[in-house]
Amino acid sequence: MARMRGDNEMEHTYGKCNICNEVYTTANVEVADDIIIYVCSDCIDKARGNFIWLCLSCGKTYIRPKDLVINKIKDHELKRAYMLCEDMQIIQGIDMCIACNPERIIDYMELHQHTMEC
Ligand SMILES: [Zn+2]
Ligand SMILES: [Zn+2]
Fold it and tell me: Which of 101, 115, 106 lies closest to 31, judged by CA?
């Protein structure tokens, strides 16, 4: 599946929400460098209480309650980083997920803890 590249033409067009795949919207967010996805207002609302990851390879989304994610983290530094994100609406693009590449991913959050930007 093609990577979603953000270019300016997307900003003014309608697209199907990449998170729920149900709603057409003009709202979009940058989930990774140069990668812009459509996100409807419902899904932006969901991002208040949940961390949302979108696999950029297969398009699968992972929505996890923030408190659950934070409680599960044992690494203190990482936990702190995530706690700082607790009040933010975060939708993060990931290069691969357990569904499209089960061998290479162990725990995305632990592998990519240095990429959190907040
Ligand atoms: Zn949506
Ligand atoms: Zn995937």
Answer: 115
Residue 97 has pLDDT above 90, yes or no: no
- pTM comes to 0.71
Instruction: Say how many Å lie between the CA of residue 75 and the centre of ligand 1.
Output: 32
| C-alpha dihedral sign at 87, 21, 71, 76 | negative
Q: Max alpha carbon distance in the chain (Å)?
A: 42
Which residues are near ligand 2, the ion (C-beta closer than 5 Å)? 55, 57-58, 60, 97, 99-100
Name 110's Cβ contacts closer than 8 Å, sequence gap at least 6: 75, 78
Q: What is the Å distance from ligand 1's center to 46 Cα?
A: 9
H or E stretch covering 38: strand 35-38
Could you tell me the distance, in angstroms and rounded to a whole number, from the CA of residue 93 to the centre of ligand 2?
10
Over residues 27-56, the mean pLDDT reads 91
**Residue that the structure tokens 């990774």 belong to:** 32
- Ligand approaching nearest to the C-alpha of 95: 2
Residue 13 corresponds to which tokens in the numbers above?
């067009």
96 alpha carbon, closest ligand: 2
